From TrEMBL:
EC class of the enzyme, as a word: transferase
UniProt GO molecular function: alanine-glyoxylate transaminase activity; L-serine-pyruvate transaminase activity; O-phospho-L-serine:2-oxoglutarate aminotransferase activity
Keywords on record: Amino-acid biosynthesis, Aminotransferase, Cytoplasm, Pyridoxal phosphate, Serine biosynthesis, Transferase
Designated name of the protein: phosphoserine transaminase
Lineage per the UniProt record: Bacteria, Pseudomonadati, Pseudomonadota, Alphaproteobacteria, Hyphomicrobiales
Organism: Prosthecodimorpha hirschii
BP term (GO), one: L-serine biosynthetic process
Length: 392
């Protein structure tokens, strides 16, 4: 193949990890100057900071006024587990997965909660299951809006019944703040600070509809609940969780960082502005892929391609003809070379996903950095392919 010259310009910000993700443009530790360090999160100013985080989350995301928003332990994983352990078992549940995290929720339902009436709907990486076959009318539903490790998302919530009788639990951790969630169709929405807004890890968010609150107050699971999962006391919702009285001690440094990210989000147009930035970023990669001779989207249907966790596979016929080990070796070499050049960090495919690349295109990433990055991807692939050919 024709040799490609080593590019000159590098991305100003080489952080393309899918979590924790790039900090917002212009971020520095100075953003944490007002952090309430050394003070109790239960003090009056501590509670005020946590309440402000909840209020700004509602404002930026457009969460309905009658939905509850809480800050919970253990990132998005903790929030999803809290919802499943507290609510499932009241009726049959349909579990939907098309990548590793959704598969994890299925494992919990089957092997930990051991629910007898659980139907499973799955699809290979790059595809969606048949959503029309899911019973969103009479059964509970658990699904991931955006598959972080596959780059496949649901296009909308039209497949969810408006007159549903159960609750819909949505893991939206790499969708929130970048995709338009249909709140009327969702009863539990979870996400973390470390994704689209580039916040710090360990803290999760749980958003509850009135239907979800009713479930919590009317249903008691057959299994014991750890303290960090308990959202009710005496059959009533613990309202304090949803006004900043967290179950466990949060990092006030991380809270300050989240507040900074939320205020930045407002400055770029809140949800509409964030979506526009992510869409523009994903378009940079899509346009490059359209002209590439070696890269392709893992997500097969354009309408279901993520605008945040963009997953790519190596489609060069000379490489693929050598088998999966050669494909994996080339992908690994591309990542290694560009990390060494300080051009791009942490953009390899997830360990359970097909070999390839996963490039974060969320709102905190700049389109100009992605454009510069694609030139380096072409250079690295040419080098890796040449090395593969020479070794053979």
């Amino acid at each position: 193949m024709t040799a490609i010259l080593r590019p000159g310009a590098k991305p100003a910000n080489p952080h393309f990890s899918s979590g924790p993700c790039a900090k917002r443009p212009g971020w520095s530790v100075a953003a944490l100057t007002d952090a309430l360090v050394g003070r109790s999160h239960r003090s009056k100013p501590g509670k005020a900071k946590l309440q402000q985080a909840i209020d700004l989350t509602r404002e930026v995301l457009g969460v309905p006024a009658d939905y509850k928003i809480g800050i919970v332990p253990a990132s998005d994983t903790g929030a999803v587990e809290m919802a499943m352990w507290s609510m499932l078992g009241a009726r049959g549940v349909d579990m939907i997965a098309w990548e590793s995290f959704g598969e994890g929720w299925i494992t919990d339902v089957q092997k930990q909660l051991k629910l007898a009436d659980a139907r499973i709907f799955t699809a290979p990486y790059g595809e969606l299951p048949d959503l029309a076959a899911v019973d969103t009318k009479t059964r509970d539903v658990v699904f991931t809006w955006n598959g972080t490790t596959s780059g496949v998302r649901v296009a909308n919530a039209d497949w969810i019944a408006a007159d549903r009788e159960g609750v819909v639990i949505c893991d939206a951790t790499s969708a929130a703040f970048a995709q338009d969630l249909d709140w009327a169709k969702l009863d539990v929405v979870t996400f973390s600070w470390q994704k689209v807004l580039g916040g710090e890890a360990a803290h999760g968010m749980i958003v509850l509809s009135p239907r979800a609150v009713a479930r919590l107050e009317s249903y008691k699971p057959a299994w014991p609940l750890p303290k960090i999962f308990r959202m009710t006391k005496g059959g009533k919702l613990i309202d304090g969780i949803f006004i900043g009285e967290t179950i466990n001690t949060p990092s006030m440094l991380a809270v300050e960082d989240y507040l900074d990210a939320l205020l930045w989000a407002k400055s770029v147009g809140s949800l509409k502005g964030l979506i526009a930035r992510a869409d523009a970023n994903a378009a940079v990669i899509a346009d490059w892929v359209a002209g590439s001779s070696w890269a392709a989207h893992l997500a097969k249907v354009p309408e279901t391609r993520s605008n945040t966790s963009v997953c790519l596979v190596i489609a060069d016929p000379d490489v693929t003809a050598r088998g999966p080990d050669a494909v994996a070796a080339v992908a690994k070499q591309i990542v290694s070379m560009l990390e060494k050049e300080k051009v791009g960090f942490d953009f390899g495919a997830y360990r359970d996903a097909p070999a390839g690349l996963r490039i974060w295109c969320g709102a905190t990433v700049e389109a100009a950095d992605l454009k510069a990055f694609t030139a380096w991807l072409d250079w690295a692939f040419a080098e890796a392919k040449a090395a593969l050919t020479k070794a053979a």
